[in-house]
Specification:
Elements lengths: L4 E7 L3 H12 L8 E4 L18 H9 L4 E2 L13 E2 L28 H14 L2 E2 L7 H12 L6 E2 L2 E2 L18 H11 L3 E3 L2 E9 L2 E9 L4 E11 L5 H8 L16 E9 L10 E5 L7 E7 L18 E10 L8 E9 L5 E6 L4 H21 L2 E8 L35 E3 L14 H21 L1
Parallel strand pairs: 1-2, 1-11, 2-8, 11-19
Antiparallel strand pairs: 3-4, 5-7, 6-13, 9-10, 10-11, 12-15, 12-18, 13-14, 14-15, 16-17
Length: about 475
């Protein structure tokens, strides 16, 4: 790759990077663009972990908690102790829980773009990711709990939209790639046109010439340093790694690394007697979305939320006690004093300064967390669920939904990128990951990040064609 002058080079292969790659390849089948992607991690899994029949929950948990895939960065960040840095082809989409709701139109009020502007990209993202609300269709457990929630005051309770391809192949068989990961983006991209890919290749610096992007300096696993030239660079390295690369590159921007936000998450474990339900049980994947009157979303997940599909094919011992997870997410206010910065006194093995994190919840944030906790108690009462582990606020970072450190906006003083994800004042340098979200709606961010990445890719192609 060091011998090629790329038109577009993408750094990172997670949801944002994968979506941008797919869109660029899909829309440029015949124009001869030279497109490359680098990934800091290795090829670890060929698909989402739960598509692998040998990957039970114990092995799954052990895999994502241990190196080399997960770096427990929170050990170095007292303000953000739950954080983990994931490196591997596909990024976090190798193990995410597939929840793919949209942000509500009202949640775009302080964005530089509107819900209507993003809507066509939401539709494209949902189609390519096979987002469906039918994952638990026919489940008696799901329908009973939904009825109880709606009767108990949660009229908007619904099924969780999940990125799961439930279409059958011939003879009614289910294919082996049900659960979505960014690896599918890469496969779709390759079906459209060739591109170059290098794993174990860590970007340490963005290079510029005459004020515009010119390439990336990288270090490989054998500690060799290379320069990869590119007219356009898309950083999709994560909310932590993208600003780290930018700061290490001395890219100007007052907001780079600032306005770190996350989803304060409250988790509870509950149970109910299975005798209340018919013999054909099914599963539950329920969402009560945020609303203008409720700044949080909560989920009821059980009894086997990820592996529900196999209930159609396996006989399982039906226990008298069914167990559920109740998980709630709320929003926090974006504040410039929540930020990441370089620590000049510490470096990683590649010679790059480590990050420091400054983070806290404001009194307003804490009030939202209390409201969320009260809602979970109310939902348990409405459904008849009994806690065996009471609602508890998770440490910051365990939500894996951090965002905002390269937020988009119209004012360079308070945002790092413009409405298309381009770094203010640096033509050819873009960001396409969670870090561009100026606010996190009270819902999982992956679908929105994918939609924005597709939009950024379209803008890049239009910009190239217009030069």
């Amino acid at each position: 790759m060091a011998q090629t002058d790329y038109d577009v080079l993408i750094v990172g292969s997670g949801a944002g990077g994968g979506a941008a790659l797919w869109r660029l390849c899909e829309q440029s089948k015949k124009n001869g663009l030279r497109i490359g992607m680098i990934e800091a991690g290795d090829l670890l899994l060929p698909t989402h972990a739960h598509n692998l029949p040998t990957f039970d929950q114990t092995r799954f948990d052990r895999y994502i908690e241990s190196p080399p895939y997960a770096e427990p960065a929170g050990r170095l960040w007292p303000d953000y102790p739950g954080a983990r840095i994931f490196r591997g082809l596909g990024g976090r989409t190798l193990h995410w829980y597939l929840m793919s709701p949209r942000f509500r139109p009202e949640e775009f009020i302080n964005w530089p773009i509107s819900y209507q502007e993003l809507l066509p990209y939401y539709l494209t993202a949902e189609q390519i990711m096979n987002v469906t609300g039918e994952y638990t269709e026919g489940s008696a457990l799901q329908e009973t709990l939904l009825h109880r929630l709606r009767f108990g005051g949660f009229s908007d309770a619904t099924s969780i939209p999940l990125a799961a391809d439930l279409n059958v192949t011939r003879y009614g068989q289910v294919h082996s790639n049900v659960f979505f990961s960014s690896i599918i983006f890469l496969a779709y991209a390759l079906n459209s046109r060739p591109f170059d890919l290098a794993v174990n290749t860590r970007a340490v610096q963005v290079l510029t010439e005459n004020g515009r992007a010119a390439g990336v300096k990288v270090v490989t696993s054998d500690n060799q340093t290379w320069t990869i030239k590119a007219k356009t660079v898309i950083l999709s390295a994560s909310t932590f790694e993208t600003p780290r690369i930018l700061l290490n590159s001395q890219i100007p921007g007052a907001a780079i690394g600032r306005y770190l936000v996350n989803h304060p998450s409250v988790l509870a474990y509950s149970k109910i007697n299975r005798n209340q339900f018919p013999e054909v049980l099914g599963n539950a994947a329920i969402m009560v979305p945020s609303s203008p009157d409720r700044n949080h979303t909560f989920f009821i997940l059980g009894t086997d939320p990820v592996n529900y599909w196999w209930y159609h094919y396996e006989e399982r011992k039906l226990l008298n006690e069914l167990r559920f997870r109740m998980l709630g997410l709320t929003t926090i206010e974006p504040r410039s004093d929540n930020y990441v910065s370089l620590d000049p006194s510490k470096q990683d093995p590649y010679g790059m300064p480590l990050l420091k994190v400054q983070f806290s919840y404001s009194s307003q944030d804490q009030a939202k967390i209390r409201e969320l906790t009260d809602t979970i108690y109310a939902a348990a009462k409405a459904t008849g669920l009994e806690f065996y582990e009471n609602p508890c606020l998770l440490p910051p970072g365990l939500d894996n939904h951090e965002a905002g450190t390269c937020r988009m906006g119209d004012d360079p003083a308070t945002s790092a990128t413009n409405r298309y994800g381009q770094i203010h004042g640096v033509p050819g340098l873009y960001v396409a990951d969670n870090s561009v979200l100026p606010l996190t709606g009270a819902a999982n961010p992956t679908l929105t990040t994918v939609a924005l990445a597709i939009r950024t890719a379209d803008y890049i192609l239009e910009h190239m064609e217009g030069r």
